[in-house]
DNA sequence: TGCTGTGAACAAGTTCACAGCA
DNA sequence: TGCTGTGAACTTGTTCACAGCA
């Protein structure tokens, strides 16, 4: 609902931005909706419509200038400012996330890593000492934290999310295969959204779900949206 | 397009299935569209509509029987059969995926792990010896492989995907922050879809994109779909 | 002339109201 | 009576045709 920018558009903008970075890396300075469309595997109409929600970034007859469009998309997506991130759950997955190259591009930076396990707390990961989650609240008071990544086991995800929210994060990237409830655990069942959850954004990254969708579409390929036949 | 089952419905079915497993684990044997809706954070209309695409699984006036609906959803999603999976790229992320609990639920099983790096090939991960990718084609001839997980660095993703497709996989779960092109690399630019790519399903799991979407929605919370106010 | 930007047509997906059955 | 199942209304998102400017 609301002011009407499709969430699919946001996902596509992220893709366009990545393509622009690659083009820039290859030293290509101009592109077009047709070119972007092919690289992003969408239609050129879609590219132009997506961009039009946010402004006029091209030149009629000429196309787009790579660095200009890149800068504009970074601005639109909020990637020109600093983002402080904590990770909860430094198991194999949390560690892989912390070390994944590209995450620290733009101004994302990991400022704190938290876990509960004996062998993990105190360990050094990507130049940070893993702290015990009991320190999270104090840490968040002392340091500005914008978002939290949740990489704990599924059964602990709701509690851990609650801690993040109480620590004041504005967004959660949830890797656990769980639908987070915007309310404290004890209050589960009450249909009220807990006050501390108001305005908190949750984005899910769920590979087990992806794996199951993949199984479904392998068995039912005709139900998969075909790729656009023409890129004009 | 096509026969008209929204892809969002498939994602939600995966969620419903997970909820049913949890309910079963708690010993709860009956549920309703309202209950499922609350746990899945969607509307009850949506739950009923999603299920109705595939059959009639409930009892009017009574709701759904947990084990029955669970079994039906597993059948619908294709999770009652065996799926042989290979992973390409056994870095930190690939290893985390291989070891993630829950992946081997249902009949998903990792049958082969592949990499190119010296220190990685030969290593034992989850009871499997990591092989060199040069063995992939022969491996796929000798063993039935249904899907491949792609956890290689972005710049190698397209080539690696091509190998998977040539090895005959029917689906790719792509963890690399790259839009895979359904064509061989040398042929990039030709708008023809390469023959070997016909019918191959690609599903993306892209946490860097999720992180950027999160940044956007933190700055523009009003553009985020609000949660359904009522669950009736 | 060429490619962007955009209002209008269309298609897809969601919400709803209620019919139908235990 | 209660909760599912579903056609119809509606809303959202995509496609299109073309106007508009370098």
Automatic annotation (TrEMBL), chains A, B:
The keyword Cytoplasm applies. Keywords: Cytoplasm, DNA-binding, NAD, Repressor, Transcription, Transcription regulation. Gene3D superfamilies: NAD(P)-binding Rossmann-like Domain, Winged helix-like DNA-binding domain superfamily/Winged helix DNA-binding domain. Residues 15-54 bind DNA. NAD(+) binds at residues 89-94. Coiled coil: none annotated. One of its GO terms (biological process) is response to redox state. It is found in: Cytoplasm. Residues 78-179 form the CoA-binding domain. One of its GO terms (molecular function) is DNA binding. One of its GO terms (cellular component) is cytoplasm. The keyword Membrane does not apply. InterPro entries: CoA-bd (IPR003781), NAD(P)-bd_dom_sf (IPR036291), Rex_DNA-bd_C_dom (IPR009718), Tscrpt_rep_Rex (IPR022876), WH-like_DNA-bd_sf (IPR036388), WH_DNA-bd_sf (IPR036390). Homodimer. NCBIfam families: PRK05472.2-3, PRK05472.2-4, PRK05472.2-5. Belongs to the transcriptional regulatory Rex family. HAMAP family: Rex. Modulates transcription in response to changes in cellular NADH/NAD(+) redox state. This is Redox-sensing transcriptional repressor Rex. It comes from Deinococcus peraridilitoris (strain DSM 19664 / LMG 22246 / CIP 109416 / KR-200). The lineage of its organism: Bacteria, Thermotogati, Deinococcota, Deinococci, Deinococcales. The gene is rex.
């Amino acid at each position: 609902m609301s002011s009407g920018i499709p969430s699919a558009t946001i996902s596509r903008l992220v893709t366009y931005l990545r393509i622009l970075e690659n083009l820039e890396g290859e030293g290509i300075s101009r592109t077009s909706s047709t070119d972007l469309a092919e690289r992003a595997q969408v239609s050129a109409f879609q590219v132009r419509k997506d961009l039009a929600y946010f402004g006029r970034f091209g030149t009629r007859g000429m196309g787009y200038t790579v660095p200009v469009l890149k800068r504009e998309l970074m601005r639109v997506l909020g990637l020109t400012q600093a983002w402080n991130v904590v990770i909860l759950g430094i198991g194999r997955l949390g560690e892989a996330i912390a070390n994944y190259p590209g995450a620290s591009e733009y101004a994302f930076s990991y400022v704190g890593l938290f876990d509960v396990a004996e062998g993990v707390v105190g360990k050094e990961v990507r130049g940070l000492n893993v702290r015990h989650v009991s320190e999270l609240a104090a840490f968040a008071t002392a340091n500005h934290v914008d978002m939290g990544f949740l990489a704990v086991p599924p059964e602990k995800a709701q509690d851990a999310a609650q801690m993040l929210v109480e620590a004041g994060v504005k967004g959660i990237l949830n890797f656990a295969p769980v639908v987070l409830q915007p309310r404290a655990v004890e209050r589960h069942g009450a249909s009220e959204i807990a006050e501390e959850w108001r305005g908190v954004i949750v984005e899910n990254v769920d590979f087990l779900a992806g794996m199951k969708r993949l199984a479904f579409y392998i068995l039912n390929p005709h139900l998969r949206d075909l790729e656009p036949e023409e890129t004009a």
